Amino acid sequence: MDLQTTTYLFVGASFALYLGIAYWARAGSVSEFYVAGGGVHPITNGMATAADWMSAASFISMAGLISNMGYGGAVFLMGWTGGYVLLAMLLAPYLRKFGKFTVPQFIGDRFYSKTASTVAVVCLLTASTTYIIGQMTGVGVAFSRFLNVSSDTGIYIGQAIVFFYAVFGGMKGITYTQVAQYIVLIFAYIIPAIFISLNLTGSFLPQLGLGSDLVGTDTSLLVKLDQVVTDLGFSQYTTTSAGSMLNMFFYTVSLMIGTAGLPHVIVRFFTVPKVADARASAGWALVFIALLYTTAPAVGAMAKLNLHSTVNTAVMKGGDLYATESSIKNDDRPDWMKRWEKTGLLKWEDKNADGRIQYYNEATKNEAAKAKAGAAGWKGNELTVNADIIVLANPEIALLPNWVIALVAAGGIAAALSTAAGLLMAISSAVSHDLVKNVFNPNISEKGELLAGKIAMAVAIVLAGWLGLNPPGFAAGTVALAFGIAASSIFPAIMMGIFSRTMSDKGAIAGMIAGLLTTLFYVFAHKGLFFIKGTDFVDMVGGVNGWFGITPEAIGTLGAIVNFAVAFLVNKLTAPAPKHIQELVESIRVPKGAGAATGH
Amino acid sequence: MTTESEKNAKAYWSATLGLLTKILIIWFLVSYGAGILFVDMLNGIKLGGYPLGFWFAQQGSIYVFIVLIFYYAHAMGKLDRKFGVQED
Asked: Residue A91: its chain B contacts at CB < 8 A?
């Protein structure tokens, strides 16, 4: 069977499975639509949380970025796992004890203020919509390759599918569907990684393969990779950090506390029966997430080595990387390159018209590499590979069988769909429940509430798809911005709600607004007002990364610091939380007496 | 609320905070410590083909995080029972 047919078959079969489950478990009441009746086992919940969590950013984009960034890619690895420790210890059990459906509900009740809850809704919508832009970028990549169309067309198709998918079921449908999606995506991720690890190092586990010697040599994979990339003028793989040490720090903190502030993840911990289960659930979620996250660095490094050895035959054979016959001829380029050229995400151009493709760092500061490239008559780098295609192209680069390539396509789509669906649920409940029902129209019927939620989903999909056509960055980069927004606004408010008995409504509201605005100001300065191309105002923050060399993806940490500082200052100047709220805080600190989650 | 149960709740909360502090110190050391602050120093040590700092940043910290969460869930369960605040 040819590749295209196999791919259709795998993607089609996985879709049939999800839709079947969604139909079987479709939601009846409002309560089921949002939290699946509060009766999901911690392991099941962990798996569903993992699927919810691991989006197009984790599956499609992250290993590609690690491949580009080398050691610095660790900000994603540590940031997107370490947050679970915070979530398990600082938030999940207490929010579960509190026993409400949504994050704005908690903030509204704890800070005894509809304004606080409305501000939380605004923060949540900003973070979730940004997150979905990143998903749409990833969906576009997956569908463009899968259907052989441009990445823009891929986004349109993805939008339509996500829409039907999310509107069809509710959380209950989604919980079990997401278990299925987790299984599909984890196999899709790990199987090619095992193949590649066996090919390169003879080690079955990619986690060990990354630290092993290359087959038939006594050179370790990482040493070889470091040597090849530095010879070609790139920076050393194992030591290149993501900006300054301060930036690495801020970036990691932002992703970690953003994890603990993202509503679609937090809401998962309302669905377990007991407080004790909420604690364990986070652990199980992290186990399932770690399977992918510990494989990703191997995928990134091995894909990089394979990519270099594809276009430069001297990489594996040894010999001079700059010799004429080392670079492959244009016409000899493998089929996978031709396939990806159609999506517009892989490009090559024969700048020195020698009929061969040279792939190196033309802007290198490495004088030796520069001299060699000059002597060899190279006139600039001739190959550009979009980082977001690395994972999907990885099995093709390694010349793995067609069914593996098809499986990865199905996995990528599963990852994007599951997270988009979870986020859309959070958006839908925030708008219908926390905004329309609690603020504007308390008498709305159940039917009207569900309808308002579905309209909110539709608007979010269209908006995110439109912004996804000109994305603010790679999928994982855009998602990192969403984490920064959550980190600077929602996380501090929840923390203060639990760990400070006296924090007042005014303190929390001022904090959230200050944190959100600080972060958005810096992000929009770099990426354009509301991510619209051409409206950036980077001069106002002192140029690119103008604040202490911090990248916009990492600024959420500063936003969170501002949030805490403003909140405590305002709290000092205003009346503390009233007595009954202080008693409420004391009661959520003990597990005893936790009932099922309720709406009111 | 009687004073006795208030005292108990206070003691439970400070025991909880003590546990959190202990875990957060380890959490910080394996990620921000070994993975960022001391990464260059640790890279001088090799773990198989891995420079150790690089391993902590891209592998080791994640394994430790998992252990920490399960340890926390276990230790909190013990605290709950010790102070008699567990769920029924």
From this structure: none
Comparing alpha-carbon positions, the chain B residue that sits nearest to A218 is B49
E strand intervals along A141-266 = none
Q: What is the tens place of the pLDDT at every residue in A537-592?
A: 888 888 888 888 899 999 999 999 999 999 999 999 999 999 999 999 998 998 88
Q: Which residues of chain A have pLDDT under 70?
A: 25-40, 101, 168-174, 271, 595-600
Spans of all domains in chain B: 17-82
How many residue contacts between A and B have a Cβ separation below 8 Å? 135
User: What is the rounded CA–CA span in Å between residue A55 and residue A158?
Assistant: 14
Question: pTM for this one?
Answer: 0.91
Establish if B13 touches chain A: CB-CB under 8 angstroms.
yes
Q: Is A88 on the interface with B (CB under 8 A)?
A: yes
Tell me the three state secondary structure of residue A398. Answer: coil
B40 touches A at CB < 8 Å: yes
Give the tens place of pLDDT for each residue, A265-281: 887 777 677 888 888 88
Phi, psi of A385 (to 5 degrees): -120, 120
Asked if residues A206 and A194 have their Cβ atoms less than 8 Å apart, the reply is yes
CA–CA distances in Å: residue A499 to residues A118, A373, A429, A495, B17: 22, 59, 26, 6, 10
For A544, phi and psi rounded to 5 degrees? -60, 130
Report the distance separating Cα A394 and Cα A391, nearest Å: 5
Interatomic CA distance for residues A419 and A336, integer angstroms = 28
A209-220: buried (b, 16+ CB within 10 Å) or exposed (e) per residue?
bbbbbbeeeeeb
**A-contacting residues in B 49-88 (Cβ below 8 Å):** 49-51, 54-55, 57-59, 61-63, 65-66, 68-70, 72-73, 76-77, 80, 85-88
Least CB–CB distance from A77: residue in B12, B32, B58: B58
Domains of chain A plus CATH, in order, are 3-302+397-490 (1.20.1730.10), 312-391 (no CATH)
Predicted ipTM beyond 0.90: yes
Q: 3-state DSSP call for residue A366? A: coil
